UniProtKB/TrEMBL annotation:
This is Uncharacterized protein. Residues 1-11 have a biased composition (Low complexity). The lineage of its organism: Archaea, Methanobacteriati, Methanobacteriota, Stenosarchaea group, Halobacteria. Residues 1-82 are annotated as: Disordered.
Amino acid sequence: MKRRTLLASLGAAGGAVGTAGCLQGTGTPGDERTTTRATTTAATTRDDATTTRDTTTDATTDDERTTEQGSTDDREDWPSAREPVETLAINDREGLSFPDNNRPHSLVFWNAVDRERSVRIEWGDGRTEELQGIHPVSVPEDGLLQVDLQVPTRYDVFVSVDDGRLGEIRVGRDAFDCNESAGRYALRESAIEDYGVVSTAAGCPAPSVVEASLTAGDGACGNRDDEQAVAGYGEEVVSVEGTVPAPDPCHDLAIASLSYDEKTRTARVVVAATPSDDGCVQCVGAIDYEATIRYEHDFPDHVEVYHRSWDEDRRVAAAAWNDDI
């Protein structure tokens, strides 16, 4: 097939295991400067510091990025000097894209009762949502158990002690960036108490487009129902394949715009059909294409693909990194 290729360098147009042990993070930040805010989403930059984040919880807790500057409650101090009796890993980092900007996020569980208990962890993640489990671990009185979440996605983590489920912890995609971080949870007699998240606070680079290219095939007569697209993530690229309907088969295709919304961590790709100078048969055209967008630093969490023809934009495909959509 004869193909037309457009290549554009867009610059910045688009916008290991056991990390908790490296932090003052499972305890208090000591004399280091802390940052305070009620809630946050994944920031693209932060000042260098150590940050503690604290929320309250009952049986279900969200591992949110909230911060604290000196707790005033009367609860017991977190046992920061202890080492975990065991460190478990959920998922595998082999082949992970942009690993430096997506470090593991740890969950540290404190057996805050006066006896040994058997602790069992089960989880579902955004990639499969199927519940999986890890073998039970015997944790002594005042002992710690660490679980490292290796792959950046969302997690529902269920904690059981002895023969009963104690509660659930939800971890969002924004828990993973270039920082070392750990959520701390006290396993009380009948509930989970959230001691907040501790984290280093380095500035993390946002996703940036290095290069984008589109290759279009020769158009053919078709109809508007031929429109389709599929988007997916590769090693460091987002690939899109699709068919754009146009007023005639001789229209040219190009990536008209690439944008990135930091708040939603979503990239928007617009593939546009524009008239050519060549004479053409009079019929509705259907034009196939393949597009590749190469990123550095990190991927957008979500990609949305739009087609533009007849002066309108239509959302035709979406993809999510390490997540079901």
